């Protein structure tokens, strides 16, 4: 295997773990992080959490688990091409969505509203809270005790107020410092994954059509390429041959442009990466095409009447649950009642955020009846 780039994250330059541990045997520190994430409870729950579609609406749609696996695949491929730390990229990718509430972004918005007077709710911060505090697996510490650079990658966004509470890890949000290139790559791999799988799921669900998508430059270009190579191709195969070309185009553009940025800025060390402007970026040719695709998905899929309907239902469920638990913490499981005694709103937000879509619905049925929903 090729040696890592001089600006890649390595164990030698890492800031390590918060609690000292003996070195792992037979695997590296970042492999150990990845393994801890895969074995966590929060990771297993991703299987039953929504990406765009409510989890039980169809077995073929992406969930947060399959989304996270796609992000990990893209991140590893790009990290390897750029000679970055593939294990770190994989660990960050697998953990990046752990803090998501049930029902996707709608759930998180409502929970943030409920928590307005108690510090708010941010899903990136919640992912960090899970790996730092909430997972209960090890005798010696709370959380998973991950490497500093893995935690830094997980915390993609953070409000300045919350960043100040995080000390060293939050510094980059108040002092305008960039995370590792591995973290930057995962961030964009996330975007590549959802833009493409939402096209695929959108077509599968028939909420959007091929004809509509022909108005989107990158889709039309890749469809034409596929049809030129395979005249008469249609249906699922045409969709996949188009989507795979879009993914390839985005990945190769991002890698080439990031490599060029790194070279032209004279980046040599990890410290240089922290101090430079964001290095992982698309070319001037690809950026507007991606923007056009995003706007298309926003207007035609995320704001589709049918999607908005399920979002409305989800909002009520999360808001109702928060209110019921705030009024009567006796409705929480015993373990969470103990946490609530130390800080009620946060303990309730943690509990609700940890729920899968179907568990939230079940709790809502139990506590609120909610006949009109089901
Ligand atoms: Mg994601």
State the main characteristics:
single chain, 374 residues, mainly alpha, Hypothetical protein af1432, 0% strand, globular, binds magnesium ion
What does this structure look like?
Helices cover 62% and strands 0% of the residues. The chain is mostly helical. It folds into 2 domains: 29-307, Hypothetical protein af1432; 308-368, no CATH class. α16 packs antiparallel against α18 (344-354). It starts with 28 loop residues before the first helix and ends in a 6-residue tail after the last helix. The relative contact order is 0.13. The model has no long low-confidence stretch (mean pLDDT 93). Magnesium ion is lined by residues 67, 71, 96-97, 190.
Quick overview of this protein structure:
The chain has 374 residues and is mainly α.
CATH topology of the largest domain: Hypothetical protein af1432
How many helices? 19
Oligomeric grouping of the chains? single chain
Distance between the termini: 54 Å
Query: Can you tell me the overall shape?
Result: globular
Can you tell me the CATH superfamily of the largest domain? Hypothetical protein af1432
Please give the largest β-sheet: none
Q: Provide the number of structural domains.
A: 2
């Amino acid at each position: 295997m090729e040696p890592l780039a001089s600006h890649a994250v390595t164990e030698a330059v890492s800031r390590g773990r918060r609690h000292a541990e003996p070195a792992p045997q037979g695997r590296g520190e970042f492999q150990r992080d990845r393994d801890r994430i895969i074995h966590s409870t929060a990771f297993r729950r991703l299987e039953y959490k929504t990406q765009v579609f409510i989890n039980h609406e169809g077995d073929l749609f992406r969930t947060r688990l399959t989304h996270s696996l796609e992000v990990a695949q893209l991140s590893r491929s790009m990290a390897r091409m750029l000679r970055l730390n593939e294990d770190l990229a994989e660990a960050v990718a697998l953990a990046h969505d752990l803090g998501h509430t049930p029902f996707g972004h709608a759930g998180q918005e409502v929970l943030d509203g409920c928590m307005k007077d108690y510090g708010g709710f941010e899903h990136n911060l919640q992912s960090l809270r899970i790996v730092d505090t909430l997972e209960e697996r090890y005798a010696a510490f709370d959380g998973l005790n991950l490497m500093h650079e893995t935690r830094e990658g997980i915390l993609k966004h953070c409000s300045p107020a919350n960043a100040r509470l995080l000390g060293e890890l939050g510094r980059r949000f108040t002092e305008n410092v960039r995370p590792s290139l591995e973290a930057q790559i995962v961030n964009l791999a996330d975007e590549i994954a959802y833009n493409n799988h939402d096209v695929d799921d959108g077509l599968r669900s028939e909420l959007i059509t091929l004809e509509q998508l022909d108005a989107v430059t990158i889709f039309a270009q890749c469809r034409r390429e596929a049809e030129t190579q395979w005249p008469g191709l249609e249906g699922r195969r045409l969709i996949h041959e188009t989507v795979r070309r879009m993914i390839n185009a985005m990945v190769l553009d991002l890698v080439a442009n990031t490599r060029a940025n790194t070279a032209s800025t004279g980046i040599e060390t990890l410290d240089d990466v922290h101090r430079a402007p964001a290095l992982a970026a698309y070319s001037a040719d690809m950026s507007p095409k991606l923007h056009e695709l995003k706007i298309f998905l926003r207007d035609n899929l995320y704001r589709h009447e049918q999607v908005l309907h399920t979002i409305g239902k989800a909002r009520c469920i999360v808001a109702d649950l928060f209110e019921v638990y705030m009024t009567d913490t006796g409705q929480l499981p015993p373990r969470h009642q103990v946490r609530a005694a130390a800080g009620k709103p946060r303990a309730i937000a943690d509990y609700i955020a940890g729920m899968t879509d179907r568990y939230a619905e079940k709790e809502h049925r139990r506590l609120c009846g909610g006949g009109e929903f089901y």
